[in-house]
Amino acid sequence: MKILEINKFNYLRRGAEKHYLDVIALLKSHSHQVAVFSMKHPNNIPSVWEKYFVSNVGFGEKDSVFSKLKGLFRIYSFEAKIKIRKLLDDFKPDVVHIHNIYHHISPSILSEIKKRDIPIIMTVHDYNLVCPDYSLLCNGKKWNELNRNRSWYFLKNKCFKKSYIQSLLVLLEFKFNKLFGFYEKYVDKFIAPSGFVKNILIGEGIDPEKIEIISHFISQDFINNKLDTDKNIAERYAFYYGSISKEKNVDALIDIFKDEKNIKLYLAGNIEENFVLPKQENIKYLGFLSSQEIKNYINQALFTISLSKLPETFGLVALESIALGKPFIALDAGAYKEIIEQGKTGFICKDLTEVKEKISQIVSGKIVFDEKKIAQIAQEKFGQEKYYQKFMKN
């Protein structure tokens, strides 16, 4: 089968890109022909399909004013429409699988695909379909729980990157997409990685008949796990990896460990702006790590942990942890409950007090996990073939 995979970034950036690249590898392993459509970027994985990619735009602080102005026209991109037309004519896919296309590619490509009667599947990685901010949060409140004046609330509180201008732009893009109903009209099937996401989509008006729950899967590099024996770590530690920011509640995580004398907290990932790591003896910052380094640190950790209050659509960090047999501790946020089996593969805690209690019990040895059993449960629930069979049915 010929499958076209589409995502705005064609390199390992965050969880969405990890899944996108894992899906490509999985499909190729089953002898499917896979083409990709994305945006040009200096970090991109080299691709024979790059000549079809849309030009680069950026919205970050380091991006030029020209790049940001250029990005305004990506609400509905005619460049993307022309480029995808050429790729569709040349590759002639049997199915198109979309990941994230907002801001950098735009839904203008959807009508071009549909003109050719090609089925469109879309994996929902965040909440951009139903909220101007992909996190679903606005000033600490969930978009889907706000009243009719939520658009004004969103703008007034600068809910996107604490900027009036950027909040206005994403709000306009959201309203534009809703007005014309691009996704609702052209996407044949939405893949929700969790029941939590499915319920949010239904609550915001997406047709439940179009939504299929297919959990993310354990990638091949975690199945073929090899410990770097040259980097054995003698001390006991808990491991957190991801964005180091207040948004991810890392300040609360650090605060919990300040009184822990028998275990250290290792942190890995990019430190977001305005976040200052305190100087604590039992806190160790490792920087941004490669996939192999992350595996090594997970393997030797006592457990992994995240206290993010964001409504996670799935939780790849939790999945990768249990795939390697390590228990995962988190607050009850988003889809974590659908990954972690309470007391068997980790703990989902109602508050920080319970988090501290579970940490103390694990550190003292009152709670001991069977790591082989954790990995076995993970493989049974989230194996590659399970995902593949469900995906191909759509």
Short description:
The chain has 394 residues and is of the alpha/beta class.
Please name the defining characteristics of this protein:
single chain, 394 residues, alpha/beta, Rossmann fold, 2 domains, six-stranded parallel sheet, globular
Describe the structure.
With 394 residues, this protein is of the alpha/beta class. The chain folds into two domains: 2-220 and 384-393, Rossmann fold (3-Layer(aba) Sandwich), CATH 3.40.50.2000; 224-382, 3-Layer(aba) Sandwich (Rossmann fold). It contains 15 helices and 14 strands. The chain has helices at 15-29, 65-72, 78-91, 108-114, 150-156, 164-180, 182-186, 195-203, 220-223, 250-257, 291-300, 316-323, 352-364, 371-382, 384-393; strands spanning 2-6, 33-37, 95-98, 120-123, 137-138, 141-142, 189-192, 211-213, 237-241, 264-268, 283-285, 303-306, 328-331, 346-349. Strands 2-1-3-4-7-8 form a six-stranded parallel sheet, with helices on both faces. It has a six-stranded parallel sheet with strand order 11-10-9-12-13-14, with helices on both faces. The chain has a two-stranded antiparallel ribbon with strand order 5-6. A hairpin with a 2-residue loop joins β5 and β6. α3 (78-91) packs parallel to α4 (108-114) and α5 runs antiparallel to α6. The longest helix is centred in the middle third of the chain and has 17 residues, at 164-180. It is globular, with a radius of gyration of 21 Å. 40% of the residues are buried. The model has no long low-confidence stretch (mean pLDDT 91).
